[in-house]
Design goal:
Two copies of one chain form a homodimer.
Chain A lengths: L2 H4 L13 H12 L6 E7 L10 E2 L3 H9 L5 H9 L4 H9 L5 E4 L5 E2 L6 E6 H6 L1 H25 L3 E4 L10 H10 L4 E2 L2 H7 L9 H5 L4 H11 L5 E3 L5 H18 L6 E4 L4 H14 L6 E4 L5 H9 L6 E4 L1 H4 L10 E7 L2 E2 L16 E7 L6 E8 L8 E3 L7 E3 L5 E3 L2 E5 L2 E2 L6 H12 L17 E3 L1 H15 L1
Parallel strand pairs in A: 6-7, 6-11, 8-9, 9-10, 10-11, 15-21
Antiparallel strand pairs in A: 1-5, 1-12, 2-4, 3-5, 3-19, 12-13, 14-15, 14-18, 16-17, 19-20
Helix pairs in contact in A: 3-7, 4-5, 7-8, 7-14, 11-12, 12-13
């Protein structure tokens, strides 16, 4: 992790930022003598957000930073003591460091429901306590990275910019802006995120700037003089086509005469398709063909898709609320479930068959179509090393199978932490964004569409199928 | 502010946590010689969240804490310098302290669209910079406090508990849990929030606790022995009625024999109305009538209302995702708009008449019905001291009026900060929750219902109506 992050610049992660029952259970494990039992927890989600066909993994780096730096202060231990936790248990917490392993898909990877995107292995007393904070980071950043990718898709090459900070959920704006870059946005308005992650930051003026001058033209001129080559003028304070645009043309021409160039104009209300066409025509008419048009105002992937379809001459979409809050889902349903204890695979039964987990320590493989080299399906095997299936089976229906013999496959998870030590070099946020776009290009278009996307298939090996079935039978009998 | 908060325990607020254009504009004001001009900004929202009839104000304390503690580190100034900001401007930032006034409704107040819930008055250079962070705190916490109040309403006296941390949006979980208490929840699972705010925290076991034992009965027994009077047993790991409930009865009876009492059971899946009735009957049959039933699993105000209507014998609702993310809205649309500069009232025109703001520095009064003493309507007057209307007018339609002569009225905003000094004693979070419930009891039921609530009216004085109309006419001509 880079130096600035390593200092946890803007905050300290408190181990109290978790659910109370993690402490109740952890003390219980300790008192029952089970604290050192080796457990494996899988993090997976059940349903793709936004009714889509995929998600984009994010949040791992922040989660790992938390795990490796988890320390209790004396105030925190004192508070737990005041809640009734035992002194001997608190002494264990005080000395506790994570000594286990974390295996995960890298951030930016395309992922699907039911896949163990992160597995945490280690003593029960350590692994239980991590649930709340890992989930809160991974669920949220994955939700937002996925939303950003959908908007970038809809933009078909036009820039998507994160303007969401003021509508982000409290301090959630940091994770939101970060995840936006994993999902492919070009820039952000969030200065702190740009500072911490060395990414592009931008923005120019609000209505208040215009209102603070006696006239709009004066406001535009003042700004353009201070930023002769990077001004984006906001057109809609009083009347977009009647005042804002003519004033922008005046200032754009004045800049040209001084050897400078107006960078752009921004539309923040009204019918963006209609207005952008009018604005483009007038700018071009006045020799301002280089001036970019950016738009904002309650955009999401559907509005962007519609504007692109209508041929609106828009160069940049500034997106706020619906990007950084993951509208209209609000949360990914990711869970942290025990799948193995002391080497013994574990299952949780549910009346809803889809909620019965896939037990045991596993490997996650991605299989490539031998024709065009895109992704065919994913497969889960037992993590024994010798589980190399020729057939992948639907986890619930044994008559649904896919032949995979001879297909190229790749283990898409990496060792991130081994015996409590970081063994993975996190790429920069920009590198992650670029890599994620490459990965996304390997997904068939049928899984990318917004309406009724084709479900990407995940199979299990015959051994894993049989293991799961035998555990279900044992628990149901 | 209490001592623990004053230490900004878990984080430092960075002034970089804002939108880039705030810095562009602020430097612009400085360079234009307008930095010391006195501005008034109003924070208001346009639409009640969730299609409801009201909102509950929250987020003020965190916003004020930020404003009064805003300081730049040399690293932060260095970063701004690297972005091209001028050294003389950065020297101004380095020394900058907020010297203005903040007037606001207290947290927990019932508020309505268009009302200036917070006004910030001071030099333009200071007030512009605060926009992003104040909005991000107030928008989010108000959204969540409102959601909590709706759920508490639906619960009709049963406890609502915040279980949302793992589904909260990143670090947004702190503001979310805090706002839940403003809106009336009884307890939280968020340990850090409970530590910082001295509120009730709780929770007992997850499925992983059950799974870590060879049998469910053994897991229940082990937990009950450690917590003989505060165990809540989770019934649905394998089979709620077939295994979980009988095992809970065994353990409940064993505790009785030892002179202790099982506190409760929790249902986390299945049909909660059906299951809660079955569970209640069996518990009662075995002399366990004191054992409480709590439920969780994708609850919101509509599910809670339905369960209450069905007579489900539920004592406590544990709510997660849909509470702490404000599902299905995700964000309040609050804005920070300049309404006055150098004593001159300011307006922003919009093609949408509802988006034209109410200009000038104002007072916000609440009028009481002379009959039953509930709230009749709110009124906005000019903040001159002599604007005591006998009639309140609809801001857009001059033929819609309400007589208010002789009605009891109260100024519902308080001075919070005066000349940069805190002049208001923030109550504790628990006090705020209690006060908020009292305030809410003064709102007519017609505004509280979920479906098509009756709109609460806000009028303006004749002077304010005329001022606004004259500014619109001047800008439109």
């Amino acid at each position: 992790m880079d130096e600035r992050r390593g200092q946890a610049y803007h905050r300290r992660f408190s181990p109290l930022y978790t659910d109370y029952y993690e402490y109740s259970m952890t003390q219980g494990y300790y008192l029952s003598g089970k604290g050192r039992d080796e457990a494996v927890f899988d993090i997976f989600y059940r349903q793709n957000p936004y009714g889509g066909g995929y998600a984009i993994a994010a949040g791992l780096r922040d989660a790992v930073e938390y795990v490796l730096n988890m320390r209790f202060t004396s105030e925190e231990l004192g508070y737990l003591s005041s809640l009734g936790y035992r002194e001997d248990f608190l002494q264990v917490l005080e000395k506790m460091r994570f000594t286990g392993d974390i295996t995960a898909v890298p951030e930016g990877e395309v992922i699907f429901p039911g896949e163990p995107i992160i597995s945490v292995k280690g003593p029960l007393i350590e692994t239980q306590l991590l649930e709340g904070l890992i989930l809160s980071m991974v669920n949220f950043q994955t939700l937002i990275a996925t939303k950003a990718r959908r908007m970038v898709c809809a933009g078909e090459g036009r820039s998507i910019v994160d303007f969401g900070l003021r509508r982000a959920q409290g301090d959630g704006g940091m994770g939101a802006s970060r995840a936006c870059f994993v999902g492919g946005v070009a820039s952000t308005s969030n200065v702190l995120l740009a500072f911490e992650e060395s990414v592009s930051v931008g923005g120019t003026m609000a209505h208040s700037w215009i209102q603070s001058f006696d006239s709009e033209l004066e406001a535009f001129r003042a700004y353009a003089q201070m930023h002769p080559d990077d001004s984006v003028l906001l057109l809609d304070t009083y009347d977009t086509l009647g005042q804002g645009l003519p004033n922008a043309v005046v200032v754009g021409r004045e800049l040209e005469e001084q050897g400078h160039h107006l960078q752009g104009v921004r539309l923040d209300s009204g019918d963006l398709a209609y207005l952008s066409k009018k604005v483009r025509a007038v700018l071009d008419e006045h020799g301002l063909g280089h001036v970019k048009i950016s738009v904002s105002n309650q955009l999401d992937e559907y509005v962007i898709e519609s504007l692109v379809d209508q041929g609106a001459p828009i160069d940049m979409f500034g997106v706020g609320t619906r990007l950084v809050t993951g509208y209209s889902d609000g949360a990914l349903d990711g869970v942290y479930k025990m799948v193995q204890l002391k080497g013994r695979p574990i299952i949780k039964i549910s009346e809803n068959p889809a909620k019965i987990n896939i037990p045991g320590e596993k490997e996650l493989y991605r299989y490539y179509d031998s024709g065009d080299g895109l992704w065919l399906l994913d497969g889960l095997c037992l993590a024994r090393g010798d589980d190399e299936p020729t057939v992948l089976m639907h986890p619930d229906f044994d008559y649904k199978k896919t032949e995979v013999a001879g297909l190229k496959r790749e283990n898409i998870r990496k060792e991130i932490v081994k015996n409590g030590e970081l063994v993975y070099a996190f790429p920069t946020l920009l590198e992650t964004g670029v890599w994620s776009a490459q990965r996304f290009s390997l997904l068939y278009g049928e899984h990318k569409r917004f309406a009724n996307p084709h479900a990407y298939h995940i199979g299990v090996s015959r051994e894993l199928f049989d293991l799961r079935r035998s555990l279900i039978d044992a628990r149901s009998s």
